[in-house]
Amino acid sequence: MTIKILGTGCSKCKSLHATVLKVVEEMGLNAEVIKQEDMMEIMKYNVMTLPALVIDEKVVAKGLLKPDQVKEILEKMTN
After folding, report:
1. Are strands 52-55 and 2-6 parallel, antiparallel or unpaired?
2. How far is Cα 19 from Cα 22, in angstroms, rounded to an integer?
3. Can you give the residue ranges of every domain in the chain?
4. Residues 24-39: pLDDT tens digits?
5. 3-class SS at 55?
6. What residues are labeled active site?
7. What is the value of pTM for the model shown?
8. Distance between CA atoms of 74 and 9, rounded to whole angstroms?
Protein backbone atom coordinates (compact mmCIF):
# COMPACT_ATOMS: atom_id res chain seq x y z
CA MET A 1 0.00 0.00 0.00
CA THR A 2 1.28 3.45 -0.92
CA ILE A 3 -0.06 6.43 0.97
CA LYS A 4 0.66 9.98 -0.19
CA ILE A 5 -0.03 13.20 1.65
CA LEU A 6 -0.31 15.98 -0.89
CA GLY A 7 0.56 19.41 0.47
CA THR A 8 2.84 22.38 0.19
CA GLY A 9 4.42 22.04 3.62
CA CYS A 10 1.91 24.07 5.61
CA SER A 11 1.10 23.18 9.22
CA LYS A 12 -2.05 21.25 8.21
CA CYS A 13 -0.07 19.19 5.72
CA LYS A 14 2.61 18.41 8.30
CA SER A 15 -0.04 17.51 10.86
CA LEU A 16 -1.80 15.11 8.47
CA HIS A 17 1.54 13.48 7.61
CA ALA A 18 2.32 12.93 11.30
CA THR A 19 -1.19 11.57 11.93
CA VAL A 20 -0.96 9.12 9.03
CA LEU A 21 2.45 7.88 10.19
CA LYS A 22 1.12 7.34 13.72
CA VAL A 23 -2.03 5.49 12.58
CA VAL A 24 -0.10 3.29 10.12
CA GLU A 25 2.28 2.31 12.92
CA GLU A 26 -0.56 1.67 15.40
CA MET A 27 -2.39 -0.52 12.88
CA GLY A 28 0.80 -2.39 11.96
CA LEU A 29 0.26 -1.78 8.26
CA ASN A 30 2.88 -2.47 5.64
CA ALA A 31 2.61 0.87 3.89
CA GLU A 32 4.94 3.35 2.26
CA VAL A 33 4.04 6.88 3.40
CA ILE A 34 5.14 9.66 1.05
CA LYS A 35 4.85 13.40 1.65
CA GLN A 36 4.39 14.99 -1.79
CA GLU A 37 5.19 18.72 -1.81
CA ASP A 38 5.96 19.22 -5.51
CA MET A 39 3.13 21.33 -6.96
CA MET A 40 3.54 19.83 -10.44
CA GLU A 41 3.00 16.35 -8.97
CA ILE A 42 0.11 17.54 -6.76
CA MET A 43 -1.63 19.06 -9.79
CA LYS A 44 -1.74 15.62 -11.45
CA TYR A 45 -4.31 14.56 -8.84
CA ASN A 46 -6.66 17.42 -9.75
CA VAL A 47 -7.28 18.49 -6.14
CA MET A 48 -8.03 22.06 -5.12
CA THR A 49 -8.03 21.48 -1.36
CA LEU A 50 -4.88 20.63 0.55
CA PRO A 51 -3.82 18.57 2.28
CA ALA A 52 -5.16 15.59 0.39
CA LEU A 53 -4.79 11.92 1.21
CA VAL A 54 -4.05 9.51 -1.64
CA ILE A 55 -4.01 5.74 -1.21
CA ASP A 56 -2.75 3.58 -4.07
CA GLU A 57 -3.11 6.55 -6.46
CA LYS A 58 -6.74 7.26 -5.50
CA VAL A 59 -7.66 10.51 -3.72
CA VAL A 60 -9.64 9.35 -0.67
CA ALA A 61 -9.88 12.53 1.44
CA LYS A 62 -9.20 16.27 1.40
CA GLY A 63 -8.49 18.59 4.29
CA LEU A 64 -7.14 17.94 7.76
CA LEU A 65 -8.23 14.61 9.25
CA LYS A 66 -8.33 13.38 12.83
CA PRO A 67 -6.62 10.07 13.73
CA ASP A 68 -9.94 8.19 13.98
CA GLN A 69 -10.89 9.42 10.48
CA VAL A 70 -7.57 8.25 9.05
CA LYS A 71 -7.97 4.88 10.78
CA GLU A 72 -11.48 4.45 9.37
CA ILE A 73 -10.27 5.19 5.84
CA LEU A 74 -7.32 2.80 6.14
CA GLU A 75 -9.54 0.05 7.54
CA LYS A 76 -11.88 0.39 4.54
CA MET A 77 -8.95 0.30 2.12
CA THR A 78 -7.40 -2.83 3.68
CA ASN A 79 -10.56 -4.91 3.95
Report:
1. antiparallel
2. 5
3. 2-78
4. 999 999 999 999 999 9
5. strand
6. 10, 13
7. 0.93
8. 23
